[in-house]
Write a structure and sequence with these properties.
The complex is a heterodimer of chains A (about 325) and B (about 375). Helices cover about 70% and strands about 0% of the residues of chain A. In chain B, the strands form four sheets. In chain B, strands 1, 2, 3, 4, 7, 12, 13 and 14 form an eight-stranded mixed sheet that branches. Chain B folds into two domains: about 180 residues, Periplasmic binding protein-like II (D-Maltodextrin-Binding Protein, domain 2); about 160 residues, Periplasmic binding protein-like II (D-Maltodextrin-Binding Protein, domain 2), CATH 3.40.190.
Chain lengths: ~325, ~375
């Protein structure tokens, strides 16, 4: 009786759940298999902490500062919630800085779109083989060299006694340059100390960020659409307005996000080329670095965040993120 | 949260205004054996070991003699220096007038025992008890170098040296027959308001300005008015020494407040540039070598302070930086500086220099003054055309 083990008991011992595999990796593997959510939590925690504490945390610490104010007499920061610092943003001098920066960002973005479109169009529809490679190198090359070197080079090009003035003199066009510089606001003593100079440098430095998305958008416009438009009797102008431009618009909007936000935040270019009138980035630097007025610096930082919030909302509505 | 923000982000502000009656920490009474190294926070170009130019080396010999390896951390602004010293891990700092008092108030530096520095007696009497490193009769460091903010000008535009700062403050026709509009520069920092105040001290005595760093509301408003007029003349405010030099070379700028550093470099390139100290006087800076309150290598630090006061080091540094030595003996017999070097850099004009200090609301001369943070926001407005 005792010698014969019944098959039934053997089956009972082998239950559906296998015994643990043993070892740490084995145990962990089993645990993850049983609780898929645990693995998910473990994998997501580090990036969530990074995003939550390092990135958002520091951002909110900064934003919180903007609700404090600086004591008029002692210059000490007062830790009481107030909107006074935001009120200071509307002082004429500070409002000037905001208007100046936003206008520059808008103009740079529009100009970049106008310059980038033909370049992108050529690259997308005509350039083939090695020309396409050359296009990519040509557009990307400025991004590989040092930003500062480029800006200093531009300072020399635009200087009163620089190469641009020399070219204008050789072409007997000095009068044109002089006339341009006498225009109020955008003119100045020389190109390198005028808004025109600042604008040109911004345009040059940020152009690649516009060309690439525009080119990508134009690549996706099917050639058959353009042929069909022509077959149906549309003039080239009508084809551009009703077919090519609307289809390329998401690319332009995507590029404009780069050019607009980069211009909004830059504080190096206006310091080297321009009339010394501050842009938002420089104002933040001056207020927190030397003045110790951290609340006002924080309030200034909020301005581009709010503007970009609206901008991105508008861009989303125009379909800039559809391709993402 | 409140206390976290307080301690985290406004350490500097708090330190700046902390009670200045710091109880004197225990100063050293005798030197021990050299620890083998010394860590210094310094302005760029202040501590040279012959790597930029083999002639300018005042570190190698010190390391050989004392066995203290010198480690230098350069800082570009006074705020950066204060931050590094707050962080700790350094023994010495070459602090300017604005940073030095902040660090004394914040107890980041300790009093020094001048008996342990044999060369102390050779220090310029004008600097020995200067208010930017001496508080209540206690010395918090050894003077290192000082210099004036001179008026740099182009000798082709000016037949003779300008006598007054009015060439950068008021529109006029220069000796070359053209207006100064667009051809002058001013410093792109709020401290330039002090230069305007100094000009008003001489030209509008009825305002009663006693110190260009201590201005009441009326005096301050007058200085801002003067600067608004200057905005019409200035095409670009200078911020970076090398950009200013480029503007004198390529942008047709002929006059500006500047440092001897730029003047010497432009002269060395053979350009028609010279500098002068106008009748109103000038503003200037004076730096002090200060010892960290928790210095880990105090003996090496004391040895460095002694070494830094030797005429050779002082003279070489003055030649290199375009500054003035804190030890008068350095002015004679230094090959690099030359016998004219001190006169060129403004050594004899000490009395005419108003040394840089941070404007505070509680000022000595008149009780209530406009504090520095307002200088910052208002100067931004002036440059922006307000």
């Amino acid at each position: 009786m005792t010698t014969s083990a019944s098959p039934a008991t053997t089956v009972q011992r082998e239950s559906a759940v296998l015994p643990g595999q043993g070892g740490i990796t084995g145990a962990l593997s089993d645990k993850f298999w049983r609780n898929p959510k645990l693995l998910l939590i473990l994998m997501l925690t580090p990036p969530a902490l990074w995003l939550g504490i390092i990135y958002l945390g520091s951002l909110f610490a900064l934003l919180a500062q903007s609700f404090f104010s600086i004591d008029e007499f002692s210059g000490m920061v007062q830790y009481e919630l107030t909107l006074k610092t935001y009120g200071e943003l509307f002082r004429p001098a500070n409002l000037d800085i905001i208007i100046r920066t936003v206008s520059m960002a808008v103009i740079v973005t529009l100009a970049a779109a106008c310059v980038a479109f033909p370049i992108g169009y050529f690259a997308a529809r005509y350039a083939r083989g090695k020309w396409k490679a050359l296009f990519y190198i040509g557009v990307m090359l400025p991004l590989w060299s040092s930003y500062l070197v480029k800006v200093y080079a531009w300072k020399l090009i635009l200087a009163k006694e620089g190469i641009l003035t020399w070219i204008f003199t050789k072409l007997h066009l000095t009068w044109l340059l002089e006339a341009w510089l006498t225009i109020p606001i955008i003119g100045g003593y020389s190109l390198s100390v005028s808004y025109t100079g600042t604008f040109l440098v911004f345009l040059y430095v940020w152009l690649p960020f516009m060309v690439l998305p525009v080119q990508a958008a134009l690549e996706r416009v099917p050639g058959s659409f353009i042929e069909a438009s022509g077959d149906l009797g549309a003039t080239p102008g009508q084809t551009f307005r009703h077919v090519i431009f609307p289809l390329a618009l998401p690319g332009i909007v995507a590029g404009s996000i780069f050019t607009f936000s980069l211009t909004l935040g830059d504080y190096i270019i206006p310091q080297i080329v321009g009339s010394s009138r501050l842009f938002i980035g420089q104002a933040v630097y001056a207020q927190q670095g030397t003045a110790g007025n951290i609340p006002l610096a924080a309030a200034f930082t909020v301005v581009p965040i709010v503007i970009m919030g609206f901008y991105l909302w508008g861009a989303k509505r125009m379909g800039a993120f559809d391709a993402l | 949260m409140k206390s976290l923000l307080k301690s985290g982000t406004s350490v500097m502000v708090v330190l700046a205004f902390a009670a200045s009656q710091a109880a004197a920490a225990d100063m050293m009474t005798e030197l021990g054996t050299p620890e083998g190294s010394v860590n210094i926070v310094a302005w760029p170009g202040y501590i040279e070991r012959g790597e930029t130019d083999a002639n300018f080396d005042w570190v190698t010999s010190f390391e050989k003699e004392t066995g203290c390896a010198v480690n230098v951390k350069t800082a570009n602004t006074s705020d950066e220096m204060v931050a590094l010293m707050n962080e700790g891990g350094f023994d010495l700092v070459t602090a300017s007038g604005d940073a030095s008092l902040r660090m004394i108030a914040g107890k980041r530096v300790q009093p020094i025992n001048t008996d342990l520095i044999p060369s102390w007696s050779t220090v310029d009497d004008r600097l020995k008890s200067a208010p930017w490193h001496t508080v209540d009769g206690v010395h918090y460091g050894t003077p290192y170098q000082w210099g004036p903010n001179v008026l740099m000008y182009n000798t082709e535009a000016f037949a003779e040296a300008p006598k007054s700062w009015n060439v950068v403050f008021e529109e006029m026709t220069l000796a070359d027959g053209k207006s100064n509009k667009g051809r002058v520069q001013a410093y792109d920092g709020p401290i330039h308001i002090a230069d305007a105040a100094q000009y008003l001290m001489a030209h509008k005595p009825e305002l009663g300005i006693k110190s260009p760093y201590e201005l009441n509301a009326d005096q301050y408003a007058a200085a801002l008015d003067l600067l608004r007029g200057q905005r019409e003349l200035v095409s670009r405010y200078w911020h970076d020494a090398f950009i200013q030099m480029d503007d004198f070379k390529n942008e047709g700028v002929v006059a500006s407040g500047s440092w001897p550093f730029q003047v010497n470099l432009l002269k060395a390139e053979g350009l028609p540039i010279a500098s002068t100290i106008p009748e109103e006087g000038v503003t200037g800076w004076a730096d002090t070598t200060m010892l960290h309150a928790e210095a880990e290598n105090p003996t090496c630090a004391y040895l460095w302070m002694e070494h830094s006061l030797s005429p050779k080091v002082q003279g070489d540094l003055a030649a290199w930086f375009g500054s003035n030595p804190a030890v008068p003996a350095a002015c004679t017999g230094n090959a690099l500086l030359g016998d004219e070097g001190c006169a060129t850099n403004g050594f004899d004009d000490f009395e005419r220099v108003s040394f840089w200090q941070t404007p505070v609301s509680k000022c000595e001369s008149q009780g209530e003054c406009v504090p520095y943070y307002r200088w910052v926001s208002d100067y931004i407005g002036v440059i922006g055309g307000r």
